[in-house]
Amino acid sequence: MPLWGFGIAPWFKRKVADPLLQILKRGAEPKQLAFSTALGLTLGLFPICGVTVFLCVMAIAVLRHRCHAPTVMLANFVATPVELSLVIPFLRLGEAISHGPHFPLTSDALRKVVFGEASREVLVAVFHALLGWTVAAPFVLGSLYLVLIPCFKFLVRKFRPNPSTRDEPLIRNAETTIKVRDL
C-alpha cells in the first residue's frame, strides 16, 4: 500500500500546504518570505532536539519586522524530520574542524549512552555537532535564501489576490465623494 494511503497527503495538505497558501495570500513580500523560510529551515536543523522552537522564537523576537513569524515557524516544523538525519553529518564536520576524537556510532556506544557510562564522550560529541552546525548554518541560510527568492516571487505572483480588484472600490468611493462635493 502506498504511503499516500496512510493519510500523508491529507496531513501534508492540512499542516503544510494550507498554511503556506494562507501566508502567500496575506501579501508578504517574496524576499521576506524567502529569508523567513531559510531562517526557519536553518534553525530547524539545529542538532539538539527540542531546542529549535525556542531558537525560532528568539530569532523572531530579535528580527521583528524583518522576518515573517508564521513562515519561520512553518519552516521549522517542516525541517524537523531532516534535523535528525543531519545530526551525524554535523557531528563529523565538528570533529573534522576541531580535530577532535571520533565518536563511535556502535551499539556499544549507544548502550553506554543509555546507561550513563559515556557522559564525557557524549558531551564532546554534542559540542562537535554544535560546532558543525554553527559552521554550516551561514552557508545553509545563504543558499536557501538564494534558491527560495525566485520560488517565492513566482508563488506570490500566482497566489496573491489581484491588487486592482482590491483598489477598485476605494477609487469608486473617491470619485463619488468628489462628484458630491463638486455639486
Q: How would you describe this protein?
A:
It is a single chain. It contains eight helices and no strands. The chain is mainly α and 183 residues long. It has one domain. The relative contact order is 0.13. The model is unreliable at 165-174 and 176-183 (pLDDT under 50).
Number of strands: 0
Radius of gyration from the CA trace? 23 Å
Major sheet summary line? none
Q: State the shape.
A: elongated
- Helix count from the secondary structure assignment: 8
Helix content: over 70%
Oligomer designation: single chain
Helix-strand makeup class? mainly alpha
Provide the number of structural domains. 1
Element-by-element helix/strand order: HHHHHHHH
Secondary-structure map with pairings?
Blueprint lengths: L7 H18 L4 H15 L7 H12 L5 H17 L1 H12 L8 H8 L4 H41 L3 H20 L1
Helix pairs in contact: 1-4, 2-3, 2-4, 2-7, 3-4, 5-7
Q: Which labels suit this protein?
A:
78% helix; DUF2062; transmembrane; mainly alpha; single chain; 8 helices; disordered C terminus; 0% strand; transmembrane helix; membrane; 183 residues
